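User: Show me a protein chain along with its predicted structure.
Assistant: Here is one chain, sequence first, then structure tokens.
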Amino acid sequence: MQDTSRLVELNIEFLEQGKELISEVTDSVFTACNKPVYPSGAGEHFRHIIEHYQLFLSGIGSDLLDYDARNRDTRIACDRSFACSVITDVQRGLAEIPSTDRQVRVKMAASPDADTDAPLSTSTLCRELEYLQTHTVHHYALIAMILRLQSVEPNANFGVAPSTLQHRTISASSAPLSQRA
């Protein structure tokens, strides 16, 4: 079995990036929506991300991760201080995850039809930590776009996939000196 430690560390680091960004924006930027351009503001995306982590943490004790059972706590989307405190709680919870990978069952809606039962899948803690990381980066990319539409520029690496960052580093180091920045 794999060790979950590195994936836990990476998720904690990504959540830290989120806290840093939340602390740098204003309340109006955090909650702004501009329908139809972006009907969900940065705060709503952070709420969505955080609640996935909360469901992961609450589900690993029972070995059933139900990502559809979100509370949709509007305080996370509207109160930057509260959002940061919840992220800190999630980071603490992640730090307590056993380092030994194991199987878990996952439930996630696969159909928009409310009468259709969500299928159960078998996964592992490591795979779900990978999912949470990619899910977070995906929503961070949306948050970055929302912020840019409000003339707020996040960190250049915020919302960029780790594989893209690695590619950029390799490409920059292999470019001729005349092309390097």
